[in-house]
Amino acid sequence: MTTLKDTLGGNLRQYGIVGALGVIVVLFQILTDGKLLLPNNVASLIQQNAYVMILALGMIIVIIAGHIDLSAGSVVGFVGAFVAVLMREQSWPWWLAIVGAIVIGMLVGAWQGFWVAYVGVPAFIVTLAGWLAFRGLAILILGGKTIASFPQEFVAISNKSIANFLGWLGGSRDTVTIVLGAVVVAALILSQLRARRTLRKHELHVEPVSGLLIKLVLFSLLIGYFTFVLAGSRGGTPIVLIIIGALVVTYSFITQKTVFGRNVYAMGGNLQAAILSGVNTKRMNFMIFVNMGMLAAIAGIVTTSKAGAASALAGQGYELDAIASCFIGGTSVYGGIGRVSGVIVGALIMGVLNMGLSIIGTDPAWQQVIKGLVLLAAVAFDLVNKRRSGALVR
């Protein structure tokens, strides 16, 4: 007899995360009298939570490999201060300042990766030191002041949308956004069919056709609805959404289709087995933190662009949002398990909670309490499932 688990190809946890997001969205749509999914609010949800998604893409690799990074928020503030100084005080062109900031972020990652990989200091300690050090450097760079008045092109990264050069569909919907949504749906269907064909070619297990159809229909409808709502916003597709989309595609490929990605999962699943298999764990750990530094730099650029100013306090607590997004999205606290798609859903859950609670006027202190309880519930659910399956013995 075919079970629900068989039909869904064993991906019940991933569907459960998406279902949880749907329940939360519906709940806050009711509690806010329909305000949550107003087109401009949906666009704001993306722009305000872009930093979480970007940081989470790096954090998931760190956590899968068995580490943690507590310095990401401080690096965001440090890089934001750095790029602001380059543009305002050193008169660098905005695009060159961005390149310089990304290089600095990679150097920060290399510094932390050196201590973790080649000296053997636990990542918790290294990044805790980084949390303190880079926050201090941000304060020193800015000298206690706030730097603002950036070039329009830089501010547009997080605050503007793609130019509507195709006109308006039905007089109120951005045609560019509709086209982009259709492209995403088509790409999703083609990628799933290609993956299924590849598995069959190598005589590997494939999910039932019914499961594939359910998945494709479900996600196509979700993307279609999101596209329709976003197309009605003030500007259409935010520029930062394109950046996030490109990063999601890139890191989905890296984690699932490359030797680097397979080695990350191998290290997190069984470090000693990975070493015996010939994985250069020192080099891998070094590169993992270089990558985290680069993504923290991108998040710093996006954050500074969104605020239109650089402050030494920028990025406070961002690392906690990224870590929470990973765990809520199904990444295992013990490493070795996690998916980019789950992390993005986790980040959206955090974003919807933030926006929904703000709209209904919840006290910020209670917002923190609720988010903390959601994180605890997600991790507890993961551990209970592992114990039931026998994958975890404690």
Automatic annotation (TrEMBL):
Matching InterPro entries: ABC_transp_permease
Domain of life the protein comes from: Bacteria
Cell compartments where the protein resides: Cell membrane
Gene Ontology CC terms: plasma membrane
Main location: membrane
NCBIfam families per record: GguB
Pfam families in alphabetical order: BPD_transp_2
Transmembrane segments: 12-32, 52-85, 92-111, 117-142, 176-193, 213-231, 237-254, 286-305, 342-360
Signal peptide: none
Keywords: Cell inner membrane, Cell membrane, Membrane, Sugar transport, Transmembrane, Transmembrane helix, Transport
Functional summary from the UniProt entry: Part of the binding-protein-dependent transport system for D-xylose. Probably responsible for the translocation of the substrate across the membrane.
Topological category with respect to the lipid bilayer: Multi-pass membrane protein
Name listed for the protein in its UniProt record: Xylose transport system permease protein XylH
Single GO MF descriptor: transmembrane transporter activity
